UniProtKB/TrEMBL annotation:
It is found in: Cell membrane. GO terms for cellular component: plasma membrane. Its main location: membrane. GO terms for molecular function: ATP binding; phosphorelay sensor kinase activity. Residues 326-516 form the Histidine kinase domain. It comes from the Bacteria. This is ATPase.
Length: 516
């Protein structure tokens, strides 16, 4: 309550300032208008008084004869009394004053300022604190024989306001009413919008907000209804690779992919949306801000790159475990077969069965080794063969495949891409007794990976969607949740300057040996 009272007092002070300012402005306007009207009206009157004195025959006769100068004061005093002027002076052409209501001026110089009277022309203007009209007295020979000056004191500022025209006073009254009414409306609006907070408290809240935005470890981006950035903290700039002048610019200026733009604009709804941005896996949540005509929205984002990498490693370990389990299961079945044949006394059949199993296993390993020189890729194909066999899926290598030795970075990328594509193919043909064929080619500085399967493939309208949102073909068919396998495959290819595409059930990835 104390804060609200203090704010009310400040608003009252602002109201007083506004009203006083308006009154002062109108008063100045009124004074200027009154002064202009005074100069016009009184200037004409003083000019008429001076002309009447200058045209008086007795004045002309007295000025023509130096012995009759003593006859001039009655003419001047009579004109001053009748006209209401503050002074009527008569002087010689040399500006020596002959008569004046102020005896100290007699014999002195007549102040003329910028007057043109000495050249024989009448003049009206300000001299000192007086409004003066100068009129020459012309002799019989046409020469200037004297000067008549009629003057009136200029009114003060206050007098000018008091005696200003009625229109100015009306304006002053209207301005006062408008000023008071406007101030009251402004006070009510300010009270309502600031929720009764003190100006110092509002400034403190702004400072706390800035400290909080730049101190938290999550990225925060504020957007207005037109999609322009209104605020962004340091962490969001780093995660989204935004420039320092991002505030005030639309999100379309920052080369976001379609997925990121969908989340930022609200076209993609839901919590914890996955977005890939320049090698980072981001989790984004968008919250609209309600109020007025639409304030905008706030988007928070977290970096999950390390978590996804750890999960990817966990998936790799799980795949290895599944492979070992599949091999153990396969060996267990073979051992049971051998044990049964021994119990039946079929020793020749045992020998033939062992030879057949050894030949099949050796043949696949020999085929992979003869076509693939990179150890990591070859080991991946051997391991995936056992996993495919457990799922009753045939895994084969295209006869023309050739892959030479590559550097460790390209080898790691090939393992990521080939592993994700084979896993995706296994999901597509799982339980169907189908087949998967892998083709590897290496030439002209580019490694190409082609994985095709006997599954239904990807619908043409999902050909780009599977990579942008991370669908697997199985998820695309069943409407399942989004995954990251194909999205990471695309990201790995693009990071090297390569490409990945799908045509039905055929996935083709191309990666240059030297990253572009």
């Amino acid at each position: 309550m104390a804060g609200r009272g203090s704010l009310a007092r400040q608003l009252l002070g602002w109201q007083v300032v506004v009203v006083v300012t308006l009154l002062a402005a109108v008063a100045v306007f009124s004074a200027v208008q009154a002064r202009s009207a005074f100069q016009t009206t009184e200037g004409r009157r003083m000019l008429s008084v001076a002309e009447d004195v200058a045209a008086t025959p007795g004045v002309r006769a007295a000025l023509a004869d130096p012995l009759r100068y003593h006859q001039l004061p009655p003419f001047a005093e009579s004109a001053r009394s009748l006209s209401g002027a503050d002074g009527v002076l008569i002087a010689l052409p040399a500006l020596r004053v002959l008569t004046s209501p102020d005896p100290s001026q007699v014999g002195g110089q007549l102040p003329v300022g910028g007057s043109t009277v000495q050249s024989g022309r009448s003049w009206v203007g300000e001299v000192g604190a007086h409004l003066v009209a100068h009129v020459p007295v012309i002799g019989d020979d046409g020469a200037v024989i004297g000067i008549v000056a009629a003057e009136v004191d200029r009114p003060s500022f206050v007098a000018g306001v008091v005696h200003s025209p009625g229109e100015a006073l009306l304006i002053l009254g209207v301005a006062t009413v408008l000023g008071v009414g406007g101030s009251l409306l402004v006070a009510r609006r300010v009270k309502r919008q600031t929720l009764g907070l003190e100006p110092t408290e509002i400034a403190g809240l702004v400072e706390h907000r800035e400290a909080m935005l730049h101190g938290i470890k999550e990225g925060v981006v504020g957007l207005d209804p037109q999609g322009r950035v209104t605020l962004v903290n340091d962490h969001a700039k780093t995660l989204l690779s935004l420039p320092d002048d991002a505030v005030g610019r639309p999100v379309t200026d920052f080369e976001f992919n379609d997925r990121a733009l969908d989340v930022l604009s609200g076209r993609a709804e839901g919590a914890d949306q996955i977005v890939l941005r320049r090698g980072r896996v981001l989790i984004m949540n968008r919250m609209p801000i309600s109020g007025g005509d639409g304030v905008g929205s706030v988007v928070t984002l977290r970096d999950r790159t390390e978590i996804v990498a750890l999960r990817h490693e966990l998936d790799a370990n799980r795949a290895t475990t599944d492979t070992l389990r599949a091999q153990a299961h396969e060996f267990s079945n073979r051992l049971h077969t051998i044990a049964g044949l021994i119990e039946l006394g079929e020793y020749d059949e045992v020998r033939r069965f062992v030879d057949r199993v050894s030949h099949t296993r050796s043949a696949w390993q020999s085929e992979v080794s003869s076509h693939v020189a990179d150890p990591a890729v070859a080991a991946l194909l051997v391991a995936k063969s056992s996993l495919a066999a457990e799922q009753a899926v045939g895994l084969r290598l295209e006869p023309s495949s050739r892959l030479g030795t590559v550097d460790e970075h390209l080898s790691a990328d090939l393992v990521t891409v080939l592993g994700n594509l084979v896993d995706n193919a296994l999901d597509s043909v799982r339980g169907g007794g189908g087949w998967i064929e892998v083709a590897l080619t290496h030439g002209d500085g580019v490694v190409q990976v082609v994985v095709r399967d006997s599954g239904p493939g990807v619908a043409p309208d999902l050909a780009s969607e599977v990579f942008r949102h991370g669908f697997t073909t199985k998820a695309a068919e069943e409407g399942g949740q989004r995954g990251l396998g194909l999205a990471l495959t695309r990201q790995t290819c693009l990071s090297r300057g390569g490409t990945v595409e799908v045509d039905g059930a055929v996935f083709t990835a191309r990666m240059p040996e030297v990253p572009v």
